[in-house]
UniProtKB/TrEMBL annotation:
Protein name per its UniProtKB record: Cytochrome c peroxidase
Positions bound to heme c 2: 234, 237-238
Binding note for cofactor: Binds 2 heme groups.
Residues holding heme c 1: 80, 83-84
Post-translational modification: Binds 2 heme groups per subunit.
UniProt keyword Mitochondrion, yes or no: no
Presence of the UniProt keyword Signal in the record: yes
Any one GO molecular function term: electron transfer activity
Domain Cytochrome c intervals: 58-222, 219-376
Species in which this protein is naturally found: Bauldia litoralis
Amino acid sequence: MIRRTLGRLCLLVGLMLVSAAQAEVLLSEDEIARALSHGPWPPAFEPDPSNRVSGLPAAIALGEGLFSDPVLSRDGTMACASCHDPAHGFAEPRARANGKVLLDRNALALVNLPAHRWFGWSGDTDNLWAQSLTPIVNADEMDQDAAGLKQALVTSRWADDYAAVFGPPAGQDADDVLVNIAKALAAFQETLVTGPTSFDRFRDALEAGDLATAALYPEAAQRGLKIFLGRGNCALCHTGPAFTNGEFHDAGVPYFITETRVDTGRHGGLEALKASPYTLAGPYSDDPEQQGAWAVRQVRPLHSDFGTFRVPGLRGAARTAPYMHDGSLADLRAVVRHYNTIDMERLHADGEAILAPLGLSATEADDLVQFLRSLSDDQP
């Protein structure tokens, strides 16, 4: 019995060695060079100079606690984690988030945020702490105001932890308390960085010239990567180590919420950004040099911004369905199917001419999905 079991193990090992020997790197030299631009990962993110508690352990711990506590909402029923579910990649598992009412958009995943310059689907904030306070004061979400938030904090379990980071809240201006809480939330969210994936092991092996290790990356994922880099044109917008250029494009998804109401996307986001006191150019930034403030000063709304939305990063995407700003695409296969047969009539008339139906076969579509799944450290 033991001899038979050992024989089976030897046969299995032999088959594995033959399979490994037959595997190969399918990318051309040019494709390898382009693949290398999507790493290394994770990068060493620097602290946010506009947030004086960025990277501070006590602030991170405070932000983590507040993130899951409904004390931030007016009626004490909603937390950040209510829509940004930690078990779902810090994203929303429903198509559209539920605040006090059903919201117009899906809640974006809160991972790899230090890689971004603009935040939210429409880029209505230019820093993470401003994005963190937006749902707190939004009447359709947590529906809180600065005075109410201060009162809730002073009587909450977090008062001492807040005081250890920012000083006693009781004597502080309510608006300062609001911003400080947002900065603690931002400090926590900065730590939500996805880990290396099978794609990263492939990419790093290519960079090291270790073709034997690189060849362990599944051939289906390699074929999908070739489509991603080439005929799919995906890498035009999903660039760099985070797989996003961080900018705003029309993906051919309807932006009519109802027959008479439109989600204006980036155009409305820019109007909100320009009116906000919470920008990198505003009085609540802790950066005396106002790094990055040039962007909010110079950017201007254009008609072509209507119905454009921020390009999401693809790392961890396998955990964060559904997809698109309205949550209308249920899974990664639906996303590929959308781009494979995209309706050109839905694209903005004066927008960018960068999308066209991919025309992938069923096998090619499956390969592209396999590549996208390989960008997630936990692939369900």
